[in-house]
C-alpha cells in the first residue's frame, strides 16, 4: 500500500506543484498525495489542488479560535483521511509540540536556506533571502528536514546548495533556490520517506 501524503500549504503552492508533477511522472512510486490542506482560503495552492483533482480542505486558525482548536481540527482531518506523512510546503503556521509529537518523523518541511544558516523564528519567505544577501554569502540553498518542536530544528534529510550571483535581489535569489533546489529536493524527500514508511508497515 502506498504512503498516504497530505500537503499543507498557505500560498502560491509551487512546491505543491513540484510534488504533483513528480507524482505524475512516476517519481514518487511509494507515495500518493491524497489531500491538500490550506490555512488560507485565498491560497493559489488550492487552485493547483483542484486542477490536479486532489481533495482540499481549508482550516483557518482564526475560525478555529485558538491554536489548540486549530491543531485538533487539523489532526482530525488527517486521521479521517488515513494520512501517514505530512509535508509542509510553504505552510506559514507554526505547529506546537503537542501536534508534532503525534507525528514523529512523519512531518517534512522545506526551508529555503542551508540550515543552520538563516533559519528559526522570523526566517520565512523573502526574509531568508534578504538575510543571505545582507550577510554576503556566496552559496545558499534549501533544506528538507523532519519537523519537531524546534522551528527549523528537526533532523536534516536533504540539502542542496545554490549559487548567489552578484546582482541578485531577494526575489531573483528566491526563484533560483526554488528552481535549482526546492522543487527537486521536496519530491525526492517525499519518495525517500514514503518508501521507508511503506516498507516498514
Ligand atoms: C518556499 O520558499 C518554501 O521554502 C517556504 O515557503 C515558500 C513557499 O512557496 N517554506 P510555494 O507556496 O511552495 O510556492
Q: What is the helix content? A: 40-55%
Radius of gyration: 16 Å
Count all strands and give the number.
7
Q: Specify the number of helices.
A: 7
Stretches where pLDDT is under 50 for at least 5 consecutive residues are none
Mean pLDDT: 97
User: What's the main sheet like?
Assistant: 7 strands, mixed
Cα end-to-end separation: 9 Å
Morphology call: globular
Secondary-structure element pattern, one letter each = EHEHEHHEHEHEEH
Strand order in the largest sheet: 3-2-1-4-5-6-7
Query: Which ions, cofactors or small ligands are bound in this entry?
Result: 5-O-phosphono-beta-D-ribofuranosylamine
- Helix- and strand-based class? alpha/beta
**Beta-sheet strand percentage?**
15-25%
Describe the structure.
By secondary structure, the protein is α/β, with parallel strands linked by helices. The chain contains seven helices and seven strands. It has a seven-stranded mixed β-sheet, sandwiched between helices. Helix 1 (14-24) runs parallel beside helix 2 and helix 6 (126-135) crosses helix 7. It is globular. The model has no long low-confidence stretch (mean pLDDT 97). It binds 5-O-phosphono-beta-D-ribofuranosylamine.
